[in-house]
């Protein structure tokens, strides 16, 4: 199968999806994304029967026109892969490409000219319907839609235009507000000085000692006309509605223990009070002897502050809605108005170059040391959570559009913390890519570049480099990882966490009185390997779990009996026998 896409992200993503579909071995779950949608041709199902295709299908054209318009209204545009069922079955399509292109053009009031290209996948004809990013929103059926994650959601034209304007680089927060400098609230100015003083360093202390007018000028919130920028007004003057709505509850649905929601204050005043409230309700945990940090908070303070500051710095300030901060037990949820911009998604937010919606405001908060320097805040938030054994923060766009960040600090993993402390080189524990991979290995026992790439949000080549580097890492004097023995030489390399490293982790858990760590079952490992790699043999499974291949044949036969695996060849006897996934029944344990 040959495609002629240029070197663009959408084209690369489509190429990857088609490779998975063409191989018939990879999982179809997760193939749909912001820019790619798998679509079955409408009108061809009659119960379980697939009806023959035709060159023209008005019902399908109407469905595809709406989906193509949605893609056009999405940053970067997108592609519909027509002829694929939700479960990945290749249904195919006989629709004429030029006829469909013309129908989409007519059905969108001649606003969208899509590129419709036929391709063959395992001998089945599919259509790629590519929508370029629209300059003006494309309406279909009297409504506007755009993609959020892997779904189309409705959006009004005003919001869409505002989002596009921000993507073009226009910064509302840097514009002239027309307000004089003396409009700045004295309490907000004092809070700016408090943040600078807390940060330390001579340059920050020098700035904190400046006069009010010099402080504002040196913070770059004064225009050439001598008035405040919009960022200056947000930070030092405030609005007649609250910028932050903070609520503290002990349990979900419980009574509110604390509420901070006050209008007419500068953002710096609100941040200062909410930051202190989060700290006061973030309990200190005392750790057993032997751990370097004897006391830690349930939620890493830097991660909690970064989630809060990101919520206000990158929100849409054109709406009166506040940033909602829910502090429930040891869970922090920050929901801010406005979706992702500049190509950022939940799948690339760790590694994507920073794209501030309000650059002047973000720069101000960074200068005050309220936020991390541009481009490293999310990295540190994720790393700080993982080092305590917490799940990585969830940062997603949800309908609204809104961005919701969730930090869960319910249980510290003391055995994991001790395990990380014994990594050699020690810098491995500060390497976010390595942390994400090791965390995955502890839970799943194997990994390859294809699995690691979306995990660390980097390319497959970069992911493979990380995996090779981990071969040189030890924990308590034993190798941390090793290549999976038994994997065919012509297959991409894969790695496993060594039995010796797992023994170190189990020992640290036992010493610290931690609950017994849940280990994946052999059948779960076999299923995941087969699903991702397209095959599984007793030798491959043995290379992961550290057992003899003959002791694992029953595991694979049981999965065959369940309909999960099928023989990879008719002759079962002899070396090299393997199974392939059927895409059949799945279990979660």
Summarize the structure.
With 589 residues, the chain is of the alpha+beta class. The two termini are 37 Å apart.
Task: List strands and helices in order, with pairings.
Blueprint: H1 9-23, E1 36-39, E2 45-46, E3 49-50, H2 58-72, E4 78-82, H3 97-107, E5 115-121, E6 124-131, E7 145-148, E8 151-154, H4 157-167, E9 176-180, H5 186-199, H6 202-208, H7 212-218, E10 227-229, H8 230-236, E11 244-249, E12 256-260, H9 267-280, E13 284-286, E14 295-297, H10 301-313, E15 323-328, E16 331-337, H11 359-367, H12 377-387, E17 394-398, E18 402-408, H13 414-421, E19 423-424, H14 432-444, E20 446-448, H15 449-456, H16 460-470, E21 474-475, E22 478-479, E23 481-483, E24 494-497, H17 499-511, H18 522-533, H19 538-545, H20 553-561, E25 565-567, E26 579-581
Parallel strand pairs: 1-4, 11-15
Antiparallel strand pairs: 2-3, 4-6, 5-6, 7-8, 9-10, 11-12, 13-14, 15-16, 16-18, 17-18, 19-21, 20-24, 21-22, 23-24, 25-26
Helix pairs in contact: 2-3, 5-6, 5-9, 9-10, 10-12, 12-14, 13-17, 15-16
């Amino acid at each position: 199968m040959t495609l002629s896409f240029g070197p663009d992200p959408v084209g690369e993503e489509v190429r990857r999806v088609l490779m998975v579909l063409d191989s018939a071995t990879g999982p179809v779950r997760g193939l749909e994304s912001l820019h790619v949608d798998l679509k079955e041709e409408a009108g061809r199902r009659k119960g379980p029967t697939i009806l023959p295709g035709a060159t023209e299908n008005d019902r399908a054209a109407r469905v595809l026109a709406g989906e193509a318009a949605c893609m056009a209204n999405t940053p970067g545009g997108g592609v519909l892969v027509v002829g694929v069922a939700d479960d990945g079955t290749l249904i195919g399509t006989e629709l004429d490409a030029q006829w469909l292109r013309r129908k989409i053009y007519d059905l969108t009031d001649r606003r969208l000219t899509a590129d419709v290209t036929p391709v063959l996948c395992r001998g089945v004809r599919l259509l790629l319907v590519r929508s370029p990013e629209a300059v003006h929103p494309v309406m279909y059926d009297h409504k506007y839609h755009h993609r959020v994650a892997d779904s189309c959601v409705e959006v009004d034209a005003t919001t869409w235009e505002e989002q596009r304007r921000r993507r073009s680089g226009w910064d509302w927060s840097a514009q002239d507000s027309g307000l004089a400098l003396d409009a700045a609230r004295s309490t907000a100015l004092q809070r700016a000085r408090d943040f600078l003083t807390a940060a330390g360093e001579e340059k920050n202390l020098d700035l904190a000692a400046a006069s009010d007018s010099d402080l504002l000028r040196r913070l770059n919130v004064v225009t050439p006309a001598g008035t405040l920028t919009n960022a200056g007004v947000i930070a030092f003057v405030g609005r007649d509605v609250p910028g932050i709505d903070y609520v503290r509850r002990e349990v979900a649905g419980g009574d509110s223990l604390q509420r901070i929601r006050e209008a007419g204050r500068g953002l710096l005043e609100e941040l200062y009070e909410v930051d202190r409230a989060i700290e006061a309700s973030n309990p200190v945990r005392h750790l057993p002897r032997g751990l370097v940090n004897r006391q830690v908070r349930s939620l890493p303070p830097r991660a909690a502050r970064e989630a809060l500051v990101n919520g206000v710095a990158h929100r849409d300030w054109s709406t009166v809605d506040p940033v909602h901060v829910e502090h429930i037990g040891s869970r922090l949820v920050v929901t801010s108005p406005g979706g992702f911009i500049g190509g950022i998604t939940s799948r690339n937010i760790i590694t994507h170059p920073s794209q501030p919606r309000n650059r002047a405001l973000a720069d101000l908060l960074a200068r005050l040391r309220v936020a991390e320097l541009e481009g490293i805040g999310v990295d540190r938030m994720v790393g700080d959570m993982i080092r305590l054994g917490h799940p990585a923060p969830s940062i997603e766009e949800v309908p609204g559009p809104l961005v919701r960040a969730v930090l869960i600090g319910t249980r510290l993993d003391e055995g994991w913390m001790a395990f990380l402390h014994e990594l050699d080189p020690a810098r491995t524990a500060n390497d976010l890519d390595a942390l994400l991979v090791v965390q995955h290995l502890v839970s799943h026992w194997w990994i390859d570049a294809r699995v690691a790439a979306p995990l660390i949000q980097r390319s497959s080549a970069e992911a493979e480099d990380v995996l090779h580097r981990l071969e040189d890492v030890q924990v308590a004097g034993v190798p941390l990882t090793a290549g999976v023995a038994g994997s065919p030489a012509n297959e991409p390399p894969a790695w496993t966490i060594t039995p010796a490293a797992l023994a170190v982790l189990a020992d640290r858990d036992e010493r610290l009185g931690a609950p017994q760590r849940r280990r994946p079952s052999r059948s779960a490992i076999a299923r995941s390997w087969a699903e991702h790699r397209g095959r599984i043999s007793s030798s491959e499974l043995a290379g992961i779990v550290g057992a003899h291949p003959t002791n694992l044949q029953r595991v694979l036969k049981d999965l065959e009996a369940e309909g999960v695996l099928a023989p990879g060849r008719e002759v079962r006897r002899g070396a090299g026998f393997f199974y392939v996934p059927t895409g059949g029944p799945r279990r979660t344990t």
